[in-house]
Amino acid sequence: MNKPDFDDIYMELAVNLAKRSHCIKRHVGAVLTKDTRIISIGYNGPPAGTHNCDDEWPEAGCPRDSKGGCSLAIHAEQNALLYAVKNKTEVQGATLYVTLAPCLACARIIFTMGVTKVVYLNSYAEYKGIGSDEGVDFLEKFGVETIRYAGNLDNVTHMI
Q1: Are 121 and 99 in contact (CB under 8 A)?
Q2: Engineered SS bond to 65: which of 13, 71, 84, 95, CB 3.0-4.6 Å?
Q3: Residue 90 appears among annotated catalytic residues
């Protein structure tokens, strides 16, 4: 039996976590790992105890903020980092797997928290129709290893 790479396992989990999102616009999942162990997970959506956008506003999603973004959403990578910190888990030196490349605001947080590697599945720039992945550019500029995932998600969950 061929054993899947950890990258494939963690990205598959991030893809599945994205399915938990209550966001109308985009579903994103994140897995935070350290030393081949999962230390936290997250997906995008409103803070716990507030409205679930797909329940409260099923047609259009949550109201927009002054810049046109979601007024309630916390990004998947933010949720993963916040949960880890809330539970007193050390994230310095961790690797983050995320289904959408981090936006610039998330990239700043990822760098500040000491995450040393980010593996992302889809381009934020392609999703937003902008010229470059600003978050990836920021992380690379400041020494965070950033890789677009090119592995295989097809065979990870199949058991023989």
Answers
A1: yes
A2: 71
A3: no
Give yes or no for a contact between 75 and 106, defined as CB atoms under 8 angstroms apart: yes
- By the 10 Å C-beta count (0-12 exposed, 13-18 middle, 19+ buried), 2 is classed as exposed
Q: What is the pLDDT of residue 53?
A: 65
* Contact by Cβ (8 Å): 83, 41: yes
* pLDDT tens per residue across span 113-138: 999 999 999 998 888 788 899 999 99
Residue bearing tokens 């490349």: 101
User: Which of 12, 59, 77, 126 is flagged as catalytic?
Assistant: 77
Token match 């500029």: residue? 141
The residues near 132 (Cβ < 8 Å, ≥ 6 apart) are 125
How far CA 12 is from CA of 6, 75, 79, 126, in Å, comes to 10, 18, 18, 21
pTM of the model: 0.89
